[in-house]
Amino acid sequence: MLDCLQTPAGEEERMSYLQWTENLSVGIPRMDDHHKKLVDLINQVFDAMSGDATSAVDSVLSDLLDYTRYHFAEEEKLLAACAYPDLEEHSAIHRAMVKEVLEMRTRYLNDPASVPASETLDFLSKWLMRHIIGKDLRYRPYAEGQDGG
Ligand SMILES: [Fe+2]
Ligand SMILES: [Fe+2]
């Protein structure tokens, strides 16, 4: 799945964008929509980093952080509503993920050159994909049919 993110040397400008695919579906359309939006924001971060404007990167990273916090809060509400047994562990992972992105943003703002666009896309892509595949998909059997009927 992550292989599609790898680019042959010298073709950075043609780097693949992150894509949401059906196999990432958690069975709750609203959560899938959130995940698609996160994919879109990560692609926007990559686009902004491929340009020169530090302010554009900061702005889209802020959007990504805001939306990530919103999604995590909504997801945790859903998991609480369906009595998901691993909610506490899942919430702790969410908090750690937000912290990681905050740290990346600080690193970028202190020294943009220290955070290359391709590395950032790679980091954020893996961050999101590993979480959806490794953690979010586990709540599917508990949450299916629980979100607004
Ligand atoms: Fe999650
Ligand atoms: Fe999620």
Commentary on this structure:
The protein has helices spanning about 30-50, 55-80, 85-110, 115-135, 140-145. The protein is an all-alpha fold and about 150 residues long. It has one domain: Hemerythrin-like (Four Helix Bundle (Hemerythrin (Met), subunit A), Up-down Bundle), CATH 1.20.120.50. The longest helix has 28 residues, at about 55-80. It starts with about 30 loop residues before the first helix and ends in a 6-residue tail after the last helix. Bound molecules: fe (ii) ion (2 copies). One fe (ii) ion (FE2) binds near residues 90 and 94.
Sequence-ordered SSE layout with sheet pairings:
Elements: H1 29-50, H2 54-81, H3 87-110, H4 117-134, H5 140-143
The structure holds fe (ii) ion (2 copies).
One fe (ii) ion binds next to helix 1 and helix 2.
- Tell me the name of the CATH class: Mainly Alpha
* Count of β-strands: 0
Largest sheet: none
Q: Tell the overall outline.
A: elongated
Radius of gyration, in angstroms, nearest whole number: 16 Å
State which percent range the strand residues make up. Answer: under 5%
Low-confidence runs: 6-14
Distance between the termini: 32 Å
